[in-house]
Design goal:
Diaminopimelate Epimerase, Chain A, domain 1, 17-stranded mixed β-sheet, 264 residues, alpha+beta
Length: 264
């Protein structure tokens, strides 16, 4: 499946049928683009009763992540396509909390857990030429957001790893670079932790970026962000005291179906 170019091998593991694949070696083998299926991550979907679904997500390096926004969108779509859940709404259980999920305007949408750990000014990470502002938000997983003057010339593959491993970030972070286009819209690029490379889209990164843009006074309640694949992710924000309440909507598309015969 793909979510705006962020791609996943997704297993319908109802009845724990794919449990034997939940190990580092299998995840890495499946994710390898040259010798496996090829993906940014691997997802296991399970029914938990009453139409609700549990999602477990692993990065391509085999590490388990508490949340992946685009994987949540893909899982939402697949759960409905398989008839496990109703399009009108169900609960998607993740390691980062239980999310309300639905299909809206033909696209999957999830309501993420409240985001409270937000720093609109993270200049202690160090500013570089071409960078206007730095911020930080914990959206299930940690994110650094860098506003840049030119997204095309942003040093994603150099600056990304530098900030991803910054000594002040105990668990590291995904790093998102954002800029306003000439037509007033926003586009972003992400260096993703666990993939250790730039990906075509990052759902939680879109949410972190939208929160920063709103906090910086550059965007409002709804922000549409163009991903590296040119497909949009829409983030809708509400406030409840010191908490941001985000919803994420975007592509969750089945590219092909297959059967795993041999991982050797």
């Amino acid at each position: 499946m793909t979510g705006s170019g962020n791609d996943f091998v997704v297993f319908d593991s109802t009845g724990r049928r794919a449990a034997h694949l939940e190990n580092v070696d299998a995840i890495r083998s499946l994710s390898a683009r040259g010798t496996g299926v090829g993906a940014d991550g691997v997802v296991f979907l399970e029914e938990v009763g009453d139409g609700d679904i549990r999602m477990r997500y692993y990065n391509s390096d085999g590490s388990e992540a508490s949340l992946c926004g685009n994987a949540s969108l893909c899982t939402t779509r697949l759960a409905v396509e398989l008839g496990h859940s109703q399009a009108g709404g169900f609960i998607l259980h993740t390691a980062a909390g239980s999310l309300k999920a639905r299909i809206r305007d033909s696209l999957p949408e999830v309501d993420l857990e409240p985001v409270r750990d937000v720093r609109a000014d993270a200049r202690e990470l160090g500013m570089k030429p071409g960078e206007r502002r730095l911020g930080y938000a914990l959206v299930g997983v940690p994110h650094v957001v860098v506003e840049v003057t030119d997204l095309e010339t942003a040093d994603v593959t150099g600056r990304g790893p530098e900030l991803r491993h910054h000594r002040s970030l105990a668990d590291g972070a995904n790093v998102n670079f954002v800029a306003r286009a000439s037509d007033g819209s926003f586009a972003y690029r992400t260096f993703e932790r666990g993939v250790e490379a730039e990906t075509l889209a990052c759902g939680t990164g879109a949410v972190a970026t939208a929160i920063m843009l709103s906090d910086w006074g550059e965007s409002g309640r709804e922000t549409v962000l163009r991903t590296r694949s040119s497909l949009p992710l829409t983030v809708t924000l509400r406030r409840d005291g010191d908490a941001w309440l985000p919803s994420l909507r975007g592509e969750g598309r089945i590219v092909f179906e297959g059967e795993i015969r041999d991982l050797d």
